[in-house]
Design goal:
Largest sheet of chain B: 2 strands, antiparallel
Oligomer: heterodimer
Order of helices and strands of chain B: HHHHHHEEEHHHHEHHHHH
Radius of gyration of chain B: 23 Å
Number of helices of chain A: 10
Strand content of chain A: 15-25%
Structural class of chain B: mainly alpha
Helix content of chain A: 25-40%
Structural class of chain A: alpha/beta
Number of strands of chain A: 10
Radius of gyration of chain A: 19 Å
Distance between the termini of chain A: 39 Å
Strand order of the largest sheet of chain B: 1-4
Shape of chain A: globular
Strand order of the largest sheet of chain A: 6-7-8-3-9-10
Number of helices of chain B: 15
Helix content of chain B: over 70%
Amino acid sequence: MSLFSAEDIAINFGGIKAVDGVTFSVEKGEVFTIIGPNGAGKTTIFNLMSRIYDPTEGRLVFEGQDITRVPAHRIASLGIARTFQNIELFEHATLLQNLLLARHAHKKSHFWSEILFLPSTRRMEIEHREAVERVIDFLDLQQYRDSLIVNLPYGVRKVTELARALCTNPKLLLLDEPSSGLNVEETEDMAFWIQDIKKLLGITVLMVEHDMTLVSAVSDRVLALNYGRPIALGTPVEVQSHPEVMRAYLGG
Amino acid sequence: MRFVFKTSYDQDIRLFRDKVDMGWYALLAILVVALPFVVSTYYAGEIAWVFIYGLCGVSLMVLVGYTGLVSLGHAAFLGIGAYAHAYFLQQGLPWIPSVVLAILITTACGLIVGLPALRMTGIYLAIATLAFSIIIQEIFNRWESVTHGFAGMPVAPPVILGVSFADEREFYFLCLFFLLVALWLTRNLLRAPTGRAWIAIRDSEIAAQSMGVNLAIYKSMAFAYSAGLMGLAGALFAHKIAYLAPDIFTILLSIQFLLLVIVGGLGSLHGAVFGAIFVALLPPAIAILRDGIPGTLSDWSASTGIGLFQIVGDALGNFLKKPGVEAGIFGLILVLVILLEPLGIYGRWLKVRLFFSTFPMYKADSFRRQKSYMRSERLR
């Protein structure tokens, strides 16, 4: 059984069919990439999966459970975490606070123990901190712990987004253009981290990406979209040489 | 220069950063306790206003500064707390149950007002809360069996478990106690998951949601908690002014509370206290200036023989006596703070502190913000 599958999903914004009958499934332990020209509906699929949009048609299934109508705030606790294309960090909070917030899905304390800050709350906080510190070590963010996000450079923010997603302990990680805005060295780091996330942490990755070098380096399978419709599915090499894909990107 | 070495996670959780910090706060505590015995009773009473405004500041800071929801209706919550407390006291309830009931009622009102906040943000929410405040003021006017309408309502002096707090000095300590409790409880929430969820909602609702924050629950919680604190402040406020009338709890008071948190510094509890000092002590300061300036300047004029001092002094004195000057000065300060120091008094305080802790190596650019990057507006 696949970890995640989208069955014939579609969404219309007015008369525009942003996603129009897309079916795919992500197997446990793979890196699955969605590519396509601008406006192909890649990010829209992510927004459907994180339940920000309601699909007009179709079903989303995660670990055998239908999540088509699950509210957005329940997605994280099911084990799906995501990053955003245009960084959505909590800008006026420190990096540490950003990562600790990602532990929210695992929060066990309740209002009354928090307002009095009972020993149990303190213990939970330290547990969360330990989980967060593991991710900080993994992504080398130690020196930025107490910096406000507004004071961090773009590249570090991008890594912070990845760190925040990892802090939720996901089974499926959605990366929306992890390399956009990064320079060559940072993109290379990102490629290594994606491989480590897959091999060391055993997390399945579903990503949207434009940088074909990165896509070929880390992806097991690639799905190409154009105008909300799937046009090719296969290994990176297969998809890149597919005539439909070439036409979508180059015209003609 | 001072270095703080972090050796345990608990260091980032506990209330005071280290022994030095604790020492400073202990010194402040001694000062605050000694103050009413040093200054006259009149000034002790004025400083009690700082504590009451401080409570209002903490309340609004949770909502505006931490959750990012604007309210123009907080004077209404204050009024509900004040009238409820005064009414229950009049019905013969002891002080503690009366305050608890007043807090519960305002909390419930906060929950109800918070419902539209689940769908509205920014200016729309401000207008919705403004409408609420006008409705509540109308209720204060008309519900004469409880509020006595325009005739007003006397408030009995506070007697808790047989101990009277009617004297200005005793009341000072009562207000101080409740402000400290409120600060402690709020700080606890802010260093726990609830506070982080509020901050997350303020900075990016979409990301907060994707990390598992239930927006509806945490926004209502912020509204309810903020209103509950306002109810407590209202009870103390009622004792302080001793006579309630509906025209106290107007939109102007709500705006003054907003001014308080903005001038104090959004997003910090220090800011709530700094703002309260500012708002509570500005009117007496203006009064002192009004009474002092003409006399001082005419003395200068007499001793130096320059007639200009006399003219300027009289003009300033006349100007400060005009009605509405106070509101004008408040407005001017608000504009200047937003233009020159967006982080308010707390922001300035951080700079001064850094100046001394890194002396003589202070860099003027330490607080310069980097370029902010474009964020997607599509999902909001």
